[in-house]
Amino acid sequence: MELADAAGSPVASVRSLVARPVSAEQIAKAGDGAVPLHRVEWVPLPDGDAAVRVPAGPEGWAVLGARPADWAWTGVSAYPDLAALEEAAPSVTLLPCPVPELTDGDDADALPARLREVLGEVLGTLQQWVANERLASSRLVVVTRDTDGPGGLVNAAVEGLVRSAQAEHPESFVLARWDGDDSSVRFFPAALAAAEPQVWVRADGVHVARLGRVAREEQTARPSGFEVWGPQDSALITGGTGGLATLLAEHLITHHHITNITLASRQGPNHPGATELVNRLTELGGNITLTACDVSDPTQITELLTGLPHLKAIIHTAGVLNDATLTNQTP
C-alpha cells in the first residue's frame, strides 16, 4: 500500500499488516487504566485582533425580529419578519433568540412551554429560510445570549436545532453565542468572516469551538454513586433488551458489583434472545429479572416501581426514534 498527500507526494508505504487479538484488559494496562478523554474547548479565533479593523456597521446586514434596538450599530436594517426582508436580500441576517423571563412564581410547566414556543419560532424561520430561493446566497445567523438558568436550557435546545440544520444546509446557517455586552458587538463582522459554523462573541474577542484532549492530571477519579450500596439494593434499566441496556448491565455487574438488576422492556421475556441475555448476565454474576413494561404507560410504570422495594437506581435507555429532516418537522 502506497500513501500520498493531497499533492501526490509519497508519504509512506506499507508492505504487510499483521493483526493479533487484544483483550480489553491489555488495552487498559497499556494506558495505566486511563482512557483518553476529550472535551469541547473555546479558543480565541486566530488573528482575532483583526476585528478592530472591520467597520462596526457592515453594509448589507440586517436584523430580524421585534427587538432591533439590541443591535446598536450604524447601518444595520431591521425587519419584523422574512416577508419584509425578502426584497432586501441582505448578505447576512441576524436572528436574535429571546431570553425567557421566568419568576419563582411560575409553575413547572412554564419553562417547557416557553422552550417549545422559542423552538417553534426558530424552526419556522429556518424552514422559511431554506424554502426561499431569494435568500439562497444569504446567511442566517442565529444568535443566542450567553446566560445561565432557564435561559441556558432554552439556548441549549436552540443550538442543538441549529446544528442539525447546519448538517443539512451547511452554507445557510451560523450559530453565534453572544455575551450581551455592547462592547463585543464590534467583533461580529470578524466572527462571521471566519467561516466557522459556530462562534462565541465576547467582550475579549471571538472564540471558536475546538476538540481538546483532557490532561491526565485532570482525569481525577470521581464518585460513581455506587460506593454505598447494600446487598439488597437493585437497579432498574428501561429499554432492557436493547444493546445499550445490555452493555450497562454488564458494566454494573463487572465494574461496580451491582448484581440485582431489573431489565424492563415492552416485550420482556418474549423478546427474541431474551433467554440468552439473561443467561449471559447471570453467568457474569447478576441476579437478573426481565419484565415486560411499557414505560410510556403511567399505570404500567407505577406497578413496576411499586414492586421494586429496594430500588436505588434507574437508568433510562428506552426510547422511540421519531426522526425527520428540517423541512419535515412541525413548528
From TrEMBL:
Entry annotated with the keyword Transferase: yes
Keywords from the named record: Multifunctional enzyme, Transferase
Boundaries of every Ketoreductase (KR) domain copy: 235-330
GO biological process assignments: fatty acid biosynthetic process
KW Transferase (keyword) present: yes
InterPro entries named among the record's database cross-references: NAD(P)-bd_dom_sf, PKS_KR, PKS_NRPS_Biosynth_Enz, SpnB-like_Rossmann
UniProt name for this protein: KR domain-containing protein
